[in-house]
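Check these lines:
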Amino acid sequence: MELLIFGHAGQAVLFFPPRVGRFYDYENWGTVYALSDRINAGEIQLFCVDSIDEETFYNNWAEPQGRMERHLQYERYILQEVLPFIKTKNDSIEIEAAGCSMGAYHAANIALRSPQLFNKIVCMSGRYDLTQPVTHFKDLLDGYRSEIVYLNMPRQYMTNLEDEELLAEIRKIKIVLVIGQTDPFFDDNYAFSETLGWKGMQHEFHIWGGYAHSARSWNRMVHLYL
């Protein structure tokens, strides 16, 4: 697995790429350049990781159970290899998780499942229940349901989460959701924001005009919210 680091100090940002994206996408799209003033000033340090979405949720030839098992392997890679590596490069006590599109799902899911490791989540143009079909975006698990699926769909498990110790840890995290008003996932974001509110999560929910699901919009969003 490959990753790219931008910056020398500041808030460590674990940056997940968009759907089936690569670790170099944010550099190629100008997203890193959009943050260059803050990076050069030592305010933030980006750790742009790779994805294996084509082996997990977008792997149409694999059985859904296998897709989930591969996803959990990816989560272990992030928690057991990437986060310790970040600690060797950055003195931040806590880490910010961020991402666009499918990367927003990964950022939200990993931070909400391991909240003691993160202090902020920034999710742009995300989808937080991959089992719910939306327009031409299908159920990514083809109707398959299990406890593992449930425990990896933020909208589902946050709705029913009653563990007060875990909720208290999550309430310490600054959560930022950003979505375009005509984005197909707007309703998903709205429902997720409502769920966070019901659970006492102080969070920001920013609605942008139009679709806003593109590199051009994300390059503006990161400068405002990361």
Observations:
- The radius of gyration is 16 Å.
